[in-house]
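name: query_chain
kind: protein
chains: 1
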Amino acid sequence: MKLGTMVHMRGADLEDKIRQVHENGFETCQICCWNGAWLTDEAADRIRALCETYHVEISTFWCGWSGPGVWDFAEGPLTLGLVPPEYRFARMEELKRGSDFAKRLGTENIATHVGFLPEVSGSGEYRAVWISYLELGGMLTGKTAGQFRSNIGAAYDNVKNLGCNTVIVHVRPFGDALYDSDYFPSSYLITGTEGDNLPFDPLKIMVEEAHNRGLTFEAWLNPYRVRARTGKALCSDNPARKYINSGSDAVYQTANGGIFYNPGSREAIDLIVNGVREIVRNYDVDAIHFDDYFYATTDSSIDSALYAANGGGKSLAAWRRQNVNTMVREVYAAVKAEKQSVRFGISPQGNTKANYDTLYADVATWLGNAGYVDYICPQIYYGFNNATCPYSSVLTEFNGMIKVSGIDLYVGLAAYKIGNEDTYAGTSGKYEWQQNSDLLSRMVTEARGASHYKGYCLYSYSSVIMPASGVKAQVQAELTALSKIL
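structure:
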């Protein structure tokens, strides 16, 4: 063990301070600076030379700051862990300078007061990209295990090059499985045909390649959706087909041919929960992720018998919200029972009224009580000037809905809108994504001031990695602006 002490850069007696460190038997010192103006190459070279002269090792550089209001406790509860947002992010540039200074001193270690850092900084900020079934098809369908491993690895490299640390990848887009499942048929995305024997395990490869690159892997599931509309036939062992053939109310069908598991069915809930449990048990995923598909229709005929039997005097809307809540709560419990470290989060629509009244997603309950989610990632796919749901208002609304500790807020951002007309944004916001090239960076910057914020997610992979030629330059400008604040 080496004994050390702190040496402050302030004052003209720096050499005397370092000499005393040596004479008092200390072998190491921590250089401390409270003024960014002192962080010059000349100062670093002088300190390093003095330490070499007196045989003192520099263990750490302590980078602190003075500044307006920071130490004035009379202004409010400005403790080490609670510094106003207007100060937090201004400090980051100084911390970067401090990092360069530390390297010139000959140490890789830099420390600071926790409170002077932003609530999330560096690699601690959740920075994710959604990779949907639409993008997986080209990487996976009909490919060998080696080809898929190469393809998904290249995609992950692209994600890392964006400065991101997390991938959210579809593993059950349509009541199917991109993995070895006892409950759901293999996805058509693997061989081209639903229900084929697995030639290899895509999820195993996706998790391995993500972790090989230091990326967090989240398994993205659509819990209820089997078919969004009339399309591919259900294979013979698809549980949804068996329910349809038997007349079970575990599924319902919509007017456009969509097929969905019925949230009011106990059998459907059990199937969904068991499906999540087997993923967490059998694969080294870091999180389970649901998106915004809950009830696909407000049509009262899809569950009239179930409601009559189980409604318990509640309105149809309240009963439906209760059904979704039950599923969410049981999925959370199943995840934690299998592996406490695995997280469970949901990405609902940004429009809270639509969530509550149309999809029957009671987000306020999930965020106001423990035992539902570890994080919420609202799809705030709106510009600042959106006439109905302006970004800032939606951000504030979701942040305010979190009433219990342990729930993080991530913001889902609409990278797919860059360079495009925002048709439903109203007159004020219709051209916002065409007329600006720094929306993403401004959105992240504003979100960082929200008390529960911990990160962001970009939708979608293809929008930022393979944008259409007509918007490619603007997408690059947006990404460049975003990179400057990471």
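note: Residues 165 and 246 are 45 Å apart (CA to CA).
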